[in-house]
Amino acid sequence: MRMASILLSVFVLTLTFAGAPLGATKQLVALSPDSISLTYTVQGKGEPALVFVHGWSCDKSYWKNQVPYFEKNYTVVTLDLAGHGDSGLGRKNWTIESFGADVAAVVKALDLKRVILIGHSMGGPVIIEAARLMPDRVIGLVGVDTFQDFAQRFPEDQRKAFLDPLTANFQGTTDRFVRSMFPDNADSALVAGIAADMASEPAEVGIGAMKSIINYDPVPALKELKIPIRCINADKWPTNVEGNKKLAYSFEVKFMPGRGHFVHLEDPATFNGLLAETIQELAAGK
User: Fold this and answer.
1) pLDDT value at 187 more than 50
2) Is the peptide bond before 155 cis (omega within 30 degrees of 0)?
3) Helix H segments across the chain?
4) How far apart are CA 39 and CA 17, in angstroms?
5) In degrees, to the nearest 5, what angle opens at C-alpha 196 toward C-alphas 190 and 197?
6) How many domains does the chain have?
7) Can you state the angle between helices 203-215 and 96-110, rounded to 10 degrees?
8) For a FRET experiment, which of 52, 61, 113, 258 has its CA 20 to 30 Å from that of 87?
9) Residues 218-241: b if buried by 16+ CB within 10 A, e if exposed
10) Spatial separation of the C-alpha atoms in residues 79 and 65, rounded to whole Å
């Protein structure tokens, strides 16, 4: 009986977190280059188009607080990367490069001409790879609590220390990992809902994607791209602003003090205001 009560509580928290604003919108489907179905939504109208890309083990519903705000003035696209949300499975290798191709496939399916790509966490490297595939369409990249240090590389022992527990117990390790990314004063229901949701990701996808995140080197792509990069980051982890500026065509960051990894969910009002300013700057070529 107690176990049933716990499961019901987690289910309710997950529903509270995920809400249903995006579920009420008609979902469209595009195909990735490797023929995986990619589910996405389009709302609003206006340029530049904003394409929101979720993070590791997340999905398009994580942008539920941004869509209603930005669809008033822009075309707003949210998508589920392959292996996430309502998109298909069956990919051989879950890599940053293949996820970037997912984003490019949706943008090209819609024939969007002037685009700002917005990526949270893993979505940051993903939008770099997406821009690499369509530099003529992308006018700016916005990272959301990501790009803390373009040059950072993890030694093999650190990679192993993180990946081994994830491989042995994906659900439990993910739950603990997600909870560690919030500040102590974060809303407990939000934390529980996100942890439960992300821990339910198929282990094959989550482990494969995490290996690619840890091994990914953005520098080769950054050398090619002549596209400004902006970030909205928490201050829970340091951002190497000066180091990033040396590697990117253009890099600037706005901070949200006292927040954790999910800044767009923890404080949507502040985040939306900062993102609106950033979009206006990029649209004006600043």
Assistant:
1) yes
2) no
3) 2-18, 67-70, 96-110, 123-133, 156-168, 170-180, 188-199, 203-215, 219-224, 241-247, 263-266, 268-283
4) 20
5) 90
6) 1
7) 100
8) 113
9) beebbeebebbbbbbbbebeebbb
10) 15
Range of the domain at 43: 2-283
- Segment holding 43, helix H or strand E: strand 37-43
The SS3 assignment for 174 reads: helix
Q: Is 183 helix (H, G, I), strand (E, B) or coil?
A: coil
pLDDT one-digit tens code per residue, 152-173: 998 999 999 999 999 999 999 9
Type of residue numbered 155: P
What is the distance between the alpha carbons of residues 190 and 14, in angstroms, rounded to a whole number?
8
Which residue do the tokens 């927040």 mark? 259
CB neighbours of residue 256 within 10 Å: 20
Which CATH number characterizes residue 257's domain? Answer: 3.40.50.1820
Q: How do residues 15-65 score in pLDDT, each as one tens digit?
A: 334 333 444 478 999 999 999 999 999 999 999 999 999 999 999 999 999
CA-to-CA dists, residue 271 to 49, 58, 142, 251, angstroms: 18, 18, 12, 18
Q: Which amino acid is at 194?
A: I
| DSSP states along 140-173 | EEEEES--S-TT----HHHHHHHHHHHHH-HHHH
Q: Exposed/middle/buried for 136, CB within 10 Å: 0-12, 13-18, 19+?
A: exposed
Would the CA dihedral through 41, 19, 95, 255 be positive or negative?
positive
Decide: 17 and 189 in contact? Cβ < 8 Å: yes
* Sheet hosting strand 49-53, strand order edge to edge: 28-31, 37-43, 76-79, 49-53, 115-120, 138-144, 229-234, 251-256
Is 0.70 topped by the overall pTM? yes
User: Using CA atoms, how far apart are residues 71 and 62, in angstroms rounded to an integer?
Assistant: 16
